């Protein structure tokens, strides 16, 4: 049996979706990181997208747009590896149980919800480090943590706050990931079937069209949860040691009372610009990786 045949029958078919998912997510993050940085600053109340970008470049330099990139890449290496890999494993199992027939939308949505929960649980520490690094420059000098990179941030968090603090805000992170991945993953597979089978589109059009639909639903489903998650992860205790929110539900209730439902959509245009292209590029990079593997016989 040749080396390529061994790859097809060994452990490779199991680990392949995870490796491909992580690689595609990391490549997409390298492109999207500046927009993500601006989005976080907007949610922290520093102004519009243009104002935030100008202020950051003027006061902190162009490199500030890539602050937290190491944490972003670590997050993709954990979160996206787990969610895309587990989603493909789950859907393949479900298709096999369905005698090879395409899955109905609700089953794809359930697979997306499950994959999102798995990915967020694995990636929550890196996500916390990313938020802390991006928000650090907005804090008073006395409260800044001055993290050097993602691993330094994780080490400091463990040393100062304990191991379990790495999952601080994990509840809203998991819920947000479940909503995002239900919209992203289920809509992509469903759209691929629609563009390819119903409209008869070619590969490039199918991938681009399905990626666009996937990006829209990912953004529409997840922004309120992302807003609450960011508020929980960046909160600081007051002079008496009390935090402004006791948890995600308390944050959601107080936000609703203070600003109404639209408050959850603070930074919505930038969030859409950030989320949708990242989702689109993740799928496009994944498609290209799969094509390269097919040419190599993997």
From TrEMBL:
Solcar repeat residue numbers: 16-93, 103-194, 202-292
UniProt xrefs under PROSITE patterns: SOLCAR (PS50920)
GO CC annotation terms, alphabetical: mitochondrial inner membrane
Record flagged with keyword Cell inner membrane: no
Cell location: Mitochondrion inner membrane
SUPFAM superfamilies: Mitochondrial carrier
Principal location listed in the UniProt entry: mitochondrion
Pfam families: Mito_carr
Mode of membrane association: Multi-pass membrane protein
Keyword annotations of the record: Membrane, Mitochondrion, Mitochondrion inner membrane, Repeat, Transmembrane, Transmembrane helix, Transport
Stated family: Belongs to the mitochondrial carrier (TC 2.A.29) family.
Name of the protein in its database record: Putative mitochondrial carrier domain-containing protein
């Amino acid at each position: 049996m040749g080396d390529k045949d061994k790859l097809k029958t060994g452990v490779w078919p199991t680990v392949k979706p995870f490796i491909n998912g992580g690689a595609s997510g990391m490549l997409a993050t390298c492109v999207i990181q500046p927009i993500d940085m601006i989005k976080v600053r907007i949610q922290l109340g520093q102004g519009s997208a243009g104002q935030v970008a100008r202020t950051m470049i003027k006061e902190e330099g162009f490199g500030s747009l890539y602050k937290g990139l190491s944490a972003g890449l670590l997050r993709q290496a954990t979160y996206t590896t787990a969610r895309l890999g587990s989603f493909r494993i789950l859907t393949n199992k479900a298709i096999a149980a369905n005698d090879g027939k395409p899955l109905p939308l609700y089953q794809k949505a359930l697979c997306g919800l499950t994959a999102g929960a798995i990915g967020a649980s694995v990636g929550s520490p890196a996500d916390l480090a990313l938020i802390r690094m991006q928000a650090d420059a907005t804090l008073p000098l006395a409260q800044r943590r001055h993290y050097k990179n993602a691993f330094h941030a994780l080490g400091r968090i463990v040393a100062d706050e304990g191991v379990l603090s790495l999952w601080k805000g994990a509840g809203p992170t998991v819920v947000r990931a479940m909503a995002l991945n239900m919209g992203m993953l289920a809509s992509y597979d469903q759209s691929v079937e629609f563009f390819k089978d119903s409209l008869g589109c070619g590969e490039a059009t199918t991938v681009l069209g399905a990626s666009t639909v996937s990006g829209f639903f990912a953004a529409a489903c997840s922004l309120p949860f992302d807003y609450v998650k960011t508020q929980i992860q960046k909160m600081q205790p007051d002079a008496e040691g009390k935090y402004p929110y006791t948890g995600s539900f308390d944050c959601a209730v107080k936000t609703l009372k203070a600003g109404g439902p639209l408050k959850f959509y603070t930074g919505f245009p930038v969030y859409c610009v950030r989320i949708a292209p990242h989702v689109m590029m993740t799928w496009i990079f994944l498609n290209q990786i799969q094509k390269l593997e097919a040419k190599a016989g993997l």
